[in-house]
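Duplicate of #3305? Posting structure anyway:
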């Protein structure tokens, strides 16, 4: 044991201290060398990896997620798989709809207060809504021209002022109680098109395709299974029909054609919601800025989808036009673009103040143009309300259950078509001229196309502005929409002595609002027949329209629902 201790253990304590010190220094040197080597590798890796490319990827993922969410809410609300308050989720974050509806109705609408979140993020980072969330902007970006054609197209920048003038006209009209121009809100535009054009066309195409495959015997099982799955998850049970949807289709196709003229043409030049967010982005805390390392290569301006980089102005990014897409960030070879507070460099500044707000642009509307837009918005309201149809609407203009007087309804309705989307019978239709031009594309019940289901109150649950109040089912069943009137010159028992009691059988109220009177009359051939002639008890009728919908008389029904005020 002695030889072992002498060989492996130091003879003196000083030897132990020296050896321990040498070992510690070696470990420290080794750790430092390892750290510096890792830092060097990290720097080389970061030079190759552009973190903004990752951010750009996140933006593209965000666009896909929000677009799919928009579609999911569209189909899910249609099949009632999502709680109805979620169906209007996107509209709750829409500051243009919120501001317009509150101005027109002179009321604070709690359901639309989430729009303040959109304003808040815009005040921090700019038009993030436009580049990351907006489903219409995403669709137009996907369907727009590619980068190779983007720079070859040239649209005068002065057209950018058009969206500000539209916004001015919308808010001026809203201040006088009219939301007619809100048909140009991007969310309302896309929802209306999907509800009245795309979904019916898709449903018709799928039905026709499955119908053509069903006669093939080996495919019948697959067709049956596919039909059952689609009808329960994505498509309505019955074919939706919407009057005047051709006009909505023409507007949307025209928008797509403009998008081929210049990428995101709508977002650049026409979108009133984009104009409102652009005003807020001018005072945003953080803005995209091209730094001193810029080598003027032009890659950023080549990839910008909205042409927000002014090459002739020393590659300056216009904060009010930038949609925060990060394309230029990812394209810059010098990593010279970033989000940072913009410091005021003017002679009177100390160099520490923020440049707030952003400087005016050459295409900003002049004072004269703004005043003209204000005047046009106000004059438009005057012209619309002096129209005879505005004074005396069509007597068959039946509003959804619970809607207040016509003026209040028009001051709240966003023209979003949410109610039409969830109506199970397609009875709610977009109005054309039934209530005058001011009521364009507002919902009204056309009982010949679809009735108000006695067991449904979906329209009030999805209305984002409260134009259709969220009535519970019991209150909705007691709400009077109109009154049914029998045309005795067309009714089969009354006019021809033909037995028919369809309207009485279909009446859902208890006790029934349609009663039968048994009489003996001569038919068209002069024979005496016993028939039951229907008559309406007005104080019991709620105007649901199922009698008009089910009436077997071809063409105009023999029993029709009219406004109670008509």
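Output from current build:
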């Amino acid at each position: 044991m002695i030889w072992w201790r002498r060989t492996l253990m130091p003879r003196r304590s000083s030897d132990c201290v020296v050896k321990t010190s040498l070992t510690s220094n070696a470990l420290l040197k080794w750790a430092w060398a390892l750290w510096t080597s890792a830092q060097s590798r990290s720097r080389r890796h970061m030079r190759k990896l552009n973190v903004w490319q990752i951010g750009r990827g996140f933006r593209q993922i965000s666009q896909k997620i929000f677009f799919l969410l928009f579609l999911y809410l569209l189909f899910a609300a249609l099949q009632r798989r999502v709680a109805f308050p979620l169906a209007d989720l996107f509209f709750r974050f829409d500051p243009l709809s919120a501001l317009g509806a509150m101005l027109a109705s002179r009321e604070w609408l709690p359901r639309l207060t989430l729009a303040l979140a959109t304003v808040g993020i815009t005040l921090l980072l700019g038009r993030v809504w436009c580049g990351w969330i907006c489903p219409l902007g995403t669709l137009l970006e996907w369907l727009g021209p590619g980068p190779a054609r983007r720079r070859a197209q040239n649209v005068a920048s002065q057209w950018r002022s058009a969206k500000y003038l539209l916004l001015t006209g919308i808010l001026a009209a809203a201040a006088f109680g009219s939301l007619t121009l809100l048909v140009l809100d991007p969310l309302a535009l896309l929802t209306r098109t999907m509800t009245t054009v795309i979904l019916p066309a898709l449903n018709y195409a799928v039905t026709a395709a499955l119908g053509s495959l069903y006669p093939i015997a080996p495919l019948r099982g697959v067709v049956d299974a596919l039909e059952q799955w689609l009808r329960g998850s994505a498509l309505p049970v019955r074919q939706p029909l919407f009057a005047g949807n051709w006009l909505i289709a023409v507007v949307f196709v025209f928008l797509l054609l403009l998008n081929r003229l210049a990428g995101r043409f709508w977002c650049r030049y026409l979108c009133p919601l984009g104009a409102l967010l652009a005003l807020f982005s001018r005072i945003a805390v953080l803005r995209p800025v091209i730094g001193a390392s810029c080598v003027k290569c032009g890659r950023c301006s080549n990839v910008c989808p909205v042409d927000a980089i002014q090459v002739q102005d020393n590659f300056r990014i216009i904060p009010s036009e930038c949609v925060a897409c990060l394309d230029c960030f990812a394209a810059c070879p010098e990593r010279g673009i970033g989000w940072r507070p913009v410091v005021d460099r003017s002679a009177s500044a100390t160099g520490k103040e923020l440049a707030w707000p952003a400087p005016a642009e050459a295409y900003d509307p002049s004072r004269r143009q703004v005043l003209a837009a204000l005047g046009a918005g106000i004059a438009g309201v005057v012209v619309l309300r002096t129209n005879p149809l505005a004074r005396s609407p069509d007597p068959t203009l039946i509003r959804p259950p619970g809607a207040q007087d016509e003026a209040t309804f028009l001051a709240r309705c966003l023209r979003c078509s949410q109610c039409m989307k969830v109506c199970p019978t397609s009875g709610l239709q977009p109005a054309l001229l039934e209530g005058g031009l001011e009521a364009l594309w507002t919902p009204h019940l056309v009982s010949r196309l679809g009735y108000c289901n006695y067991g449904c109150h979906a329209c009030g649950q999805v209305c984002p502005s409260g134009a259709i109040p969220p009535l519970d089912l019991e209150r909705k069943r007691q709400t009077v929409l109109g009154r049914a009137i029998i045309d005795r010159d067309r009714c089969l028992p009354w006019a021809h002595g033909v037995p028919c009691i369809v309207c009485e059988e279909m009446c859902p109220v208890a006790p029934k609002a349609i009663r039968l009177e048994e009489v003996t009359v001569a038919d068209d051939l002069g024979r005496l027949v016993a028939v039951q002639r229907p008559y309406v008890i007005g104080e019991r009728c709620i105007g649901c329209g199922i009698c008009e919908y089910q009436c077997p008389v071809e063409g105009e029904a023999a029993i029709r629902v009219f406004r109670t005020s008509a």
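Confirmed duplicate; merging threads. The two ends are 119 Å apart (CA to CA). The chain has 27 helices and ten strands.
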